[in-house]
Amino acid sequence: MLYRVTKIVLLAMLTSSFSQAVYAAKDDLDELQMKLSNQWTLVKNDRLRDIKTYARLESGKQYRSFKATVMMKDTKPETLVRFLLDFENYHKWYWQVLESKLLKKVSPTEYYLYLVHKAPAGLPDRDVILHATVELQNAARNYITLKVEAVPDYLPLKPPLVRMVAEDLQFKFTPLENGDLFVES
Asked: Which of 6, 128, 183, 184 is 20 to 30 A distant from 82 in Cα terms?
C-alpha cells in the first residue's frame, strides 16, 4: 500500500513539475519570438559590419519578406554587380545553393538562371528559375538596380526537386561621394 501511495505522489509531483516546465518554456518562447506585422521590423542590427536586417508579413501571402541594408566600404557598384552576375559560381558562396547555372543571356542587362537550394533534412531540395534584370545608373538615377523574379514555368519540373514559385529580390546599389557603397535589398 505504501508503495502504491508513494508511486501516486511521485507521479503527481512529476506531472505538476512537467506542466510548469512546459508553461515556462512556452512563456520563454513567447518573449523570444518576434511579432511581425505588415510593417518592416528590425530583426538584427550588426553594428560591427554595418548590416541591418528587417522582416515583415506580406499581405495575403503565406510567407515573410526580408530586407537588408549594408554600407560597403570603398566598393564600386560595378564590382559588386559583376560579382552578383557571376551566376555559375553562386554555389560557391550563396547560402544553401547546391547548383547554379546561366540558362540564357538575353542582353548585358537581362538573364535567366537556374538554382537548386538545399532543403532541411528530410525534405526534398528546391529548384527555381530566375529572371534577372539590371537597370544601370544614369543622369536621372544615381544608383544601379538588380531585380530578380521567379519564373516557375520557364522549364519543366525536375522531380524529386520542388519548384519554388517565389524568390523575388531587388538590390539597389547607391555609390556615395566618399567611395562607399550603400546596398539595399
From this structure: 128
- Amino acid sitting at position 184: E
- The H or E element that residue 74 is part of is none
Backbone CA torsion sign across 8, 13, 14, 18: positive
Cell numbers of 21, please?
516546465
Any idea which fold 73-184 has?
Alpha-D-Glucose-1,6-Bisphosphate; Chain A, domain 4 (3.30.530)
Nearest Cα to Cα of residue 145 among 185, 100, 105, 115: 185
For residue 30, what are the CA distances in angstroms to 24, 25, 76, 109, 159?
Answer: 10, 9, 43, 46, 38
Is residue 87 within 8 Å of 101, Cβ to Cβ? yes
| 72-130 pLDDT tens trace | 999 888 888 888 889 999 999 888 999 999 999 999 999 999 999 999 999 999 999 99
- In degrees, to the nearest 5, what angle opens at C-alpha 31 toward C-alphas 25 and 185? 125
Instruction: Name the residue with cell 530566375.
Output: 130
d(CA 10, CA 4) in angstroms, rounded, equals: 10
- State how beta strands 126-135 and 162-163 pair: parallel
